Amino acid sequence: MNKRLWLFLALFLAQTTGFGKGPPSTVKPESVGLSAPRLRNIDRLIDQHIGEKKIAGAVVLVARKGKIAYFREAGLADTGKPMQKDTIFRVVSMTKPLTSTAIMLLYEEGKLLLSDPVSKYIPEFKGPKVLELQPEGSASEYKLVPAHREISIRDLLTHTSGLLYLFPNNYYHERERQLVVDFYKEAGITDGFCRPNETIGDMVKRLARLPLYKHPGEVWDYSLASDVLGYLVEVVSGMPFDQFMQKRVFGPLKMRDSHFYIPKEKLGRVAAVWKSDWQGSLNKVTGPMIDRDLALCPSDAYALSGKYLTGGGNVLSTAYDYYRFAQMLLNKGELDGVRLLSRKTVELMTATNHIGNFDATFLHDHGWKFGLGFAIQQDRAHDVDAGDVGVFEWAGIYSTRFSVDPKEDKITIFMSQTSPFNLHFNLWDKLLVLSGSAIND
Amino acid sequence: MDIKKRPARLAVLLLAIAVCPASVWATGPRIKQDLFTPNANVIYALDFPPFITTELAGGGIAIELVNTVLQAEKINAPINTLPSPRMLAYYILQEKALAAVGGHLHFTAEEQKSLVFVPLLRLQEHYYVYRPKHPQGLPWQGDLKALATYVYGANQKEDVAAYQQAGVKVETGNTLTLLEKLKAGQVDFIGGPELAINWYLDRNFAADKDKFSKLEPNAGEGTLFIIFNKKHPQGETLAKQFKKGLAALIANGQYQALLEKQLGGGDAVSRYSLPLQ
Mutate which of B81, B84, B178 to disrupt the A interface (most A C-beta within 10 Å)? Predict the structure, then answer.
């Protein structure tokens, strides 16, 4: 084969695989204080789940001391298509820490303060109202009362704004929540898991004028706040959110396979979503999945373009790309000589005292707090243990997860595409145990 | 001031620094509850672009008309535009707000007794279909009974009694979701003023705007009202004053000029204008 053909092949591979120079190198686990035999327990755990048809496939990555020590793909990415290390996943809510990072970049440039009222940038948020139930027998079931204060940017980052998501209405049965969700639906607000045919700004400007569920700062409730933050990035930076992320986050961190809308040449790398009852019934999802207030449209990930750019759940990414982002956070803002955030900013993002006495119980348990974009383990006196105080984590609704353990200098990434989301908790908890128990120094 | 020459003022200044907490002297934005100064005369409007929308500088033609009359009549009443009919109903019926502005609003006969309806704009409405689903359109000649086998997409709070009487199935939603349902084949036809439908087609369906077809003849006429609340202490008085101001606006040509400025020339003004006599 002549040199030109080799060059052509090399360029072709660089275009069609995520890694360009081939899969990222891994080190011997022992060189970073991990036990190779113990890490192989992860092989068994994942293969067992695939064998039992609980999940179709997964990619797992464990890194320590800045080196990848375990990186393995298993099972299927799609029908007849094996999982690959560079398979692309809908990371959905793992978009949120990325969005928080974008906000913190603007914060570091002095373009906004976390204490700023959001209305300073998005005037529709001025003068928020809170829905308050009235005693039984009152003329009206509820009143819309002025909020004790406006929503601040910090409230959005910490999910203490009083905004809601619609889908938790399936699980939490409170009248106030139902009423606010009804307002959302009437105004055409959705969770954005089925991408609407409008801009994020259009949605946010309607959301801003609807009643809050609780007074800002007086609740912790997982919500559309990160979607608002994504639009805030657009307003403050003057750039479309996806372009900002490409230029300021994905580009500098060399997250080459992270996108809001998939480029055509990478379509074949997007994993399918599988519906699993965790009992052996595993079926590929082809259409929308609607369960009362939870609406999921996995096939939207195949759209090559669109208007909706949500900071709460739009991003498609790989295990390796997300590892690079997590490693930047673990390194206190720097990766491969590129400083994205300052040490002080990452310390602020991972501080455990942002939400006061509330607990981030949505994914975890009491004893978990919420920083500026992810949950943080404050103590170990609870059932959902991530191995160390200070571990920070978040997840995506199609069963993707990341965990950063600053004390042990360790990152664990799990990528799957399985629905419903909550059934994979047991697998994740076990994976973290295996990743932690592989520490051998 | 020359503080060296005025020791008393210097003492007051130092005392103030000592007494007041540091936060009082801090610069930069701070969030305070007193940011919200309630106004007793708030008017609530319902999103209905391009007639009522925060996307346009003046708030849309209906809001510009209202504001022009309010200014001429020296009525101090801020307008708050809402995205939800339920919120609008809440403010009018429960909070007894001064007034509401909107199209496609529906109040019960009992509720109407305490409301004063003042027409602002005429809304010539049309039905729309999605041509890939209905290449020949629908058998619409002005009689809803001919559409009995089809599904109509109605706006929230729209009075759909006539459709139900004619045997037409009805699904509800806001205009954007109705257009999406129309495209997805979940409803067969929707209705609305051409300007409103075009607003969404231009912004949200630009690539296939020409696949949405308007049916003739028109689907009837609606009215965009400002609705004063008799239960508000000044509701009836201000309704009369507003009517007088609007009549003066029509008489002096300013009403027509505003419509021409917003809607352009041609027959657009005649399709949305109130009778000018």
Answer: B84
Residue A298's pLDDT is 97
Chain B contact for A11 (CB, 8 A cutoff): no
Among A150, A218, A299, most B C-beta atoms within 10 A, so best to mutate, is A150
CB pairs under 8 A between A and B: 70
DSSP A264: G
Strands (E), A267-345: 274-276, 282-284, 289-291, 294-296, 316-317, 334-335, 338-339
List of chain A residues whose C-beta atoms are within 8 Å of the C-beta of residue B173: 188
The pair of structure tokens assigned to A122 is 């998005």
Q: Report the interhelical angle of A95-108 vs A225-237 (nearest 10°).
A: 40
Sign of the CA dihedral with B231 first, then B232, B237, and B239 last: negative
- From the CB of residue A25, how many other CB atoms can be counted at a distance below 10 Å? 9
Q: Which of residues 27-46 of B touch A (CB under 8 A)?
A: 28-33, 35-36, 38
Distance between CA atoms of residues A292 and A177, nearest Å: 14
Rounded-to-integer distance, Cα B254 and Cα A306, Å: 42
Arithmetic mean of pLDDT over chain A: 94
Pairing of strands B43-46, B99-102: parallel
Residue A244's pLDDT band (cuts 50, 70, 90) = very high
Cα separation of A387 and B49, whole Å? 54
More confident residue, B276 or A253: A253
Share of chain A above pLDDT 90, in %: 91
How far is CA B157 from each of CA A70, A246, A420, B172, rounded to the nearest angstrom?
58, 43, 35, 9
pTM, entire model: 0.89
List the domains of chain B with CATH numbers: 43-121+222-267 (3.40.190.10), 123-220 (3.40.190.10)
Q: Rounded to 5 degrees, what are φ and ψ at A224?
A: -75, 10
* Cβ separation B156–A152 shorter than 8 A: no
User: CB–CB of A124 and B87 under 8 A?
Assistant: no
Q: Is A288 on the interface with B (CB under 8 A)?
A: no
B176 and A117 within 8 Å at the Cβ level: the answer is no
Has residue A6 got a pLDDT over 80? no
CB contact under 8 A, B205 and A197: yes
Q: How far apart are CA A7 and CA A347, in angstroms?
A: 45
Average pLDDT over residues B65-90: 95
pLDDT of residue A339: 98
d(CA B221, CA A53): 59
Percentage of chain B exceeding pLDDT 90:
72
What domains lie within chain A, and their CATH numbers?
26-96+245-437 (3.40.710.10), 98-239 (3.40.710.10)
B275: which DSSP letter? P
Q: What is the pLDDT of residues A140-199, one digit of tens each?
A: 899 999 999 999 999 999 999 999 999 999 999 999 999 999 999 999 999 999 999 999
Q: Which residues, numbered 186 to 205 in chain B, qualify as contacts with chain A under a Cβ-Cβ cut-off of 8 Å?
A: 203-205
The CB density around residue A384, as the number of other CB atoms within 10 Å, is 19
Is A152 at the interface with chain B, CB within 8 A?
A: yes
The separation between CA A37 and the C-alpha centre of its own chain, rounded to angstroms, equals 31
